[in-house]
């Protein structure tokens, strides 16, 4: 019980810090959603793009623009491991390694989700004409968003603890995060990618971002053209477990436990 209370207080501390930035996130979210609207709902359709791709591209851009937020959080962890060593203090608390690493991943996930929600809210208002008349379950949408961010945060946390600070600075963005964006069906739906390049589209199925983007596209449009949520949610759960246990293994190895 003492261990669980310590875990809750650590997460509450992280959320308290994030709460002070919410108004800033709201302004930035409105600006980002406005830019997406001008590009995807005005400029590209005027150049001949079919309106069917508008919500698909908007959702892909929403997810891909959260990757830099995750990278910023990862940088803080990497710097701490190299210089400040605050993690060593956390390791002395009466809390297991499993909960320590869960705290890192959960705080990073919730922080990214808090940054993401204002963009989604403003985008829903601007893009309402391109969405289904009876929007899909909000709870399903949030579950997919949470699982996607948790899986990405867990996988990237495993990488941070496994590799050196020098490797992180040199290769994390190029070798770790860019493949998640560009091999995640960010621009076009998976079925369209498969029709044009089936072998490359099959490679996309190894990426958890593909299931997150496709699942949210399915919810907001109600179209059978996307990978159904009944497939996306179990796959994202699987990647979340893989990422978590990978991060736990890397943490134990880094801390010599």
Task: Characterize the structure shown.
By secondary structure, this protein is mainly α. The chain has one domain (2-255). The protein is built from twelve helices and no strands. Helix 4 (67-84) packs antiparallel against helix 8 and helix 7 runs antiparallel to helix 11. The two termini are 23 Å apart. The mean pLDDT is 82.
The fraction of residues assigned to DSSP E strands is under 5%
Number of strands: 0
Assign the structural class, choosing from mainly alpha, mainly beta, alpha/beta, alpha+beta, or little secondary structure.
mainly alpha
Which series of helices and strands comes N to C? HHHHHHHHHHHH
Tell me the span between the first and last alpha carbons: 23 Å
Largest sheet: none
Helix content: over 70%
| Form type | globular
Average residue-wise pLDDT:
82
Low-confidence stretches: none
Domain count: the total is 1
Computed CA radius of gyration, to the nearest angstrom:
19 Å
How large is the count of helical segments? 12
